[in-house]
Write a structure and sequence with these properties.
Layout lengths: L2 E6 L7 H15 L3 E6 L13 H5 L7 H11 L2 E7 L7 H9 L12 E7 L5 H16 L5 E8 L12 H13 L1
Parallel strand pairs: 1-2, 1-3, 3-4, 4-5
Length: 179
Amino acid sequence: MKKVLILSTSLRENSNSEILAKETERGAKDAGNDVELISLKNKNIQFCKGCLACQKLGKCIINDDANEITEKMKNADVIVWATPVYYYEMSGQMKTLIDRANSLYVSKYNFKDIYVITTSADGSENVVQTVLNGLDGWCACLPGTSIKGYVNGGGLDNPNAAINNKNLMEQAYNMGKSI
């Protein structure tokens, strides 16, 4: 059994990326894992100030929801990022949380396996690749981590469209089941 943390970074209620994140959660639970899904909706996550105090203190000096989420990231065996793609990049909320989780760099984090869910109106493989490139840079700073799989929810040009896309729902479930 693995401890799986799914981070849904869309701020829209029942967004396509969150729908797929919930389906991944279902698959991971069905596989017998301990799974927690955290939505960044209604979370207070301020921008990193670049002070690097987290490198000495082991946590950020900004007292908001990012510290609790970062601690959960640290203790997870697997992290799944779910993000809408705006202008060919991960959501700003996702990038802000990544920046704020800088204390992980000097910690004894448990996770090694990273999975990704992207959703976008554009259906090309190029869309997911931009997010994977950004996460590859994050993984390069965290020795031993790597991206193990992803679901590209491209071509979803309407809110809640993922729920009616049987193929994408199956991909998300199967990714969760394989964790």
